[in-house]
Amino acid sequence: MPEAALAVEIAVQDLEGVRIALGEGADRVELCSALGVGGLTPSPGMIELAAELARQAARPDFVNVLVRPRAGGFVYSADETEIVLRDIRQLRELGAGGVVVGVLDERGRVDLETVTALREAAGPLILTFHRAIDVAMHPADAVARLAGSGVDRILTSGGAQHAVDGVATLHDFAQRAAGRIEIVAGGGVRTADVATLAATGIGAVHLSARRTVNGTPSGPGGGHPEYEVTDIDVVRSAVAAARSLRE
Length: 247
What we know:
With 247 residues, the protein is an alpha/beta fold. It has 8 helices and 10 strands. The protein has helices at 15-23, 44-56, 78-94, 112-122, 139-148, 167-177, 194-198, 232-244, and strands at residues 7-12, 28-31, 63-66, 98-101, 126-129, 153-156, 182-186, 204-207, 210-214, 226-230. It has an 8-stranded parallel barrel, surrounded by 7 helices. The chain has a two-stranded antiparallel sheet with strand order 9-10. The longest helix is centred in the middle third of the chain and has 17 residues, at 78-94.
């Protein structure tokens, strides 16, 4: 299935989320765990099974995997960077179609040296630089530099809490990208925001499309019984909103 003029990317945390996104016509998913802390690297088993679902649907590039070793910012130690590199190499073997990363240096700038190493580790996979750019110094200048480093996409809210409030920056990023790199608007995106965001010239919207359900009591050591799942109605409406822009 070819991507629409405005692609729809869904952040999912489980296999059912992958199935929903495939079934409702989303263009791709960002597979992760722990969205409550901004997302962390999912397990190898999750990645492998998600990739199998995508292959069965003849969508080999559908699953893009977030590789983030911990919560709490994007400045990583040498050990943490090595973990990211090894995770990327492993997810290539597991069948992922893309990798989503973000790394800053100690001065808060986009760490282009490490990005180059991550690009090499990713090989032929699609490489997305995530919302670390929204807390980076001089993010506008980083757009062209990331394109020159082999990054394929940038996920950003335009520096705002919600992407719809960052439309001026998103438009600037899209102009700077000049077709060399895809700008993906993400951050509190609602279906009602899709047309406004599309008008900035971005290439895709990113939604978590999640809702909370109650599980069984997990005991003192198991945390809160509530957990998150992908909301099929939100996915369906977001895809419909993107498709309506072509009519």
